[in-house]
Automatic annotation (TrEMBL):
<dbReference type="InterPro" id="IPR050383">
    <property type="entry name" value="GlyoxalaseI/FosfomycinResist"/>
</dbReference>
<dbReference type="Pfam" id="PF00903">
    <property type="entry name" value="Glyoxalase"/>
</dbReference>
<dbReference type="InterPro" id="IPR037523">
    <property type="entry name" value="VOC_core"/>
</dbReference>
<feature type="domain" description="VOC">
    <location>
        <begin position="8"/>
        <end position="123"/>
    </location>
</feature>
<protein>
    <submittedName>
        <fullName>Oxidoreductase</fullName>
    </submittedName>
</protein>
<feature type="domain" description="VOC">
    <location>
        <begin position="141"/>
        <end position="259"/>
    </location>
</feature>
<dbReference type="InterPro" id="IPR029068">
    <property type="entry name" value="Glyas_Bleomycin-R_OHBP_Dase"/>
</dbReference>
<dbReference type="InterPro" id="IPR004360">
    <property type="entry name" value="Glyas_Fos-R_dOase_dom"/>
</dbReference>
Length: 312
């Protein structure tokens, strides 16, 4: 198995109760492209990304995170990960096989330590994509996903042990200790982060914009449209990326970002950033202040799908 079997984040799949509003939001306001639908499941691509889709939305009575999908280096990496997980008693949802989702490929699914469904895949066909132009304020690609956890240290240990994620930085609260851990699977500062939260849920999914101009135009457009802004615009210290967070129609948090830091993995050493320093949350000081109210808005509803595989 390769030294770094996981290559990147592919897509984030959610189930929602108000399906029609969610589909309209992604297509008409967030700037994604609908690439397939059967009426109860819709796939959305980012115009600048070779991934077949970056978000899947499913109609459901229960709001949940259906799954998070990561790319693997090759079939040996897929098979090696499946064997490693199964040998240690991690529950596999499916064995490595040909995938039936758009783009095909080879992969499997399993439950992580808190019951989320995770997919690992390789050989998925690339989608025809294009260069995003100047001042075009739509997402280029899916940047990263952040997961809420009541036991974040346990979560981090699981992803480090089984999927070989590496710690980039940690945000630390003076009373609570660690509150957010930034994990990478490639030189990008983080493809996933884990946030301390009272329950298991999706914290947010983040979408990369072309640059600062496009990021600000997109943020402003959504604010003018009356989309509920949770926090931003600003720039984080960990990852050095910009941020504006919004609530989608079902109360999930979605982020526009750009300029996420690329690391030299041979020389990088993780930092501890204290939340007592206001620049940890926002280097620029341009966003609304991070406080308990803003933090709670990102707690989301408790996930209703733990240790239950999605039907698709």
């Amino acid at each position: 198995m390769p030294d770094q079997p996981i290559t990147h984040l592919r897509h984030v799949d959610i189930a929602v109760q108000d399906y029609d509003k969610q589909v309209a939001f992604y297509e008409q306001q967030w700037g994604l492209t609908k690439v397939g639908s059967d009426g109860d499941v819709t796939y959305f691509a980012a115009e600048g990304s070779p991934e077949q889709y970056v978000v899947r939305v499913r109609r459901s009575q229960d709001k949940r995170l259906d799954l998070v999908s990561f790319g693997a280096a090759d079939r040996a990496a897929v098979d090696g990960l499946a064997t490693r997980l199964a040998t240690d008693g991690v529950k596999l949802v499916s064995e490595p096989d040909t995938l039936q989702t758009p783009g095909g490929g080879y992969g499997f699914r399993f439950f992580d330590v808190e019951g989320r469904t995770i997919e690992i895949s390789t050989e998925v066909a690339a989608r025809t994509h294009r260069r995003i132009e100047e001042r075009e304020d739509i997402p280029v690609r899916l940047s990263h996903v952040v997961l809420n956890s009541p036991e974040p240290e346990r979560m981090m240990a699981f992803y480090e042990k089984y999927l070989d994620f590496r710690l980039s930085d940690t945000n630390v609260h003076p009373q609570l200790g660690g509150i957010m851990w930034f994990l990478r699977c490639n030189p990008q500062h983080h493809s996933m982060a884990i946030a301390r939260c009272p329950h298991v849920s999706l914290h947010h999914a983040s979408f990369e914009m072309r640059g600062l101009e496009e990021y600000m135009r997109g943020s402003g457009r959504l604010m003018r449209d009356g989309i509920h802004k949770v926090w931003g615009p600003g720039r984080h210290r960990a990852g050095d990326n910009t941020f504006t967070y919004f609530h989608d129609p079902n109360g999930n948090t979605m982020e526009y970002t750009t300029e996420l830091e690329t690391l030299d993995e041979d020389t990088w050493h993780p930092h501890l950033y204290s939340t007592e320093d206001p620049e940890t949350s926002d280097v620029w000081g341009t966003s609304n202040p991070m406080n308990d109210f803003v933090s709670r808005e990102m707690f989301n509803d408790p996930d209703r799908g733990l240790f239950i595989a999605p039907p698709v």
